[in-house]
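[User] Could I get a sequence and structure tokens?

[Assistant]
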Amino acid sequence: MNFSDYALDLYPFISNYVKYDVYFIELVQNFVKEDVWENNEVLTQSANTLTCYINSKRNIPYRLANFLNTNCDIDRFSSWIDDRITESESHDAVYKWLVENGIDNREVSTACANLLKDIINELAKKKRRNSKHEIETPSQSKNVIADSTNRNDIFNEKLAERFISVIMNLNNITEEIKASMMMNTILSPEIIDTAIEIQKELSTYYDIYISKNPLLAQQILNVGKSFNDFLLSLYYDDIEIQEAEKRWYKYLDYLETLLSSI
């Protein structure tokens, strides 16, 4: 397994669906000792370069791999992994992924941390290629393409499952808001906070789907914006009830369209 495989396979469980460049920074920042983080080359690299490390368009250079390997803090990274897995309630899913990759260890955060340590260690052993590049045979190239396609299929399937889960959560909280409005009761702070968190997570999918499925991305944008507009109407007294209701029904229409598309 290479670094990109590792990062993409775990993306649905530990990334909070941030952009790839941010995800890379979070991975390596928590992988090394805290006191060495400010003195490394990651902070000087472009977002595009960091994104390429995740999607396998560029290999992590030897110098960076060596820095990560030398300054690794396995306990710190394991703790960070454990927090993310707990937040996403994905312990069983990550355990299943480990088993599929030949690692049967219920201590999933430790297993994931050690796996990345092994990957970085291998990268740190590789010097920069010299002028004598190995030439892949056609069959080797086909195998690489096939493996990449399979990984993308798995990743897209996991991504779709999580996306649908977020939409269902949004639909559930919408029903709670609808019930409160019908009973003419004030929405509880817990419901509003939950709604805001779901809306924030939904917004990350716009960046993910904008190039893959522009129509779906636009629907996500419509739902997110209209929902945010409605929530704002709950906070400002100068927004009339009729306007708040108008925003609410506009949001419901957009949500129904999005639900019908998935």
In short: Residues 138-182 form the longest helix (45 residues). Confidence is low (pLDDT under 50) at residues 128-149.
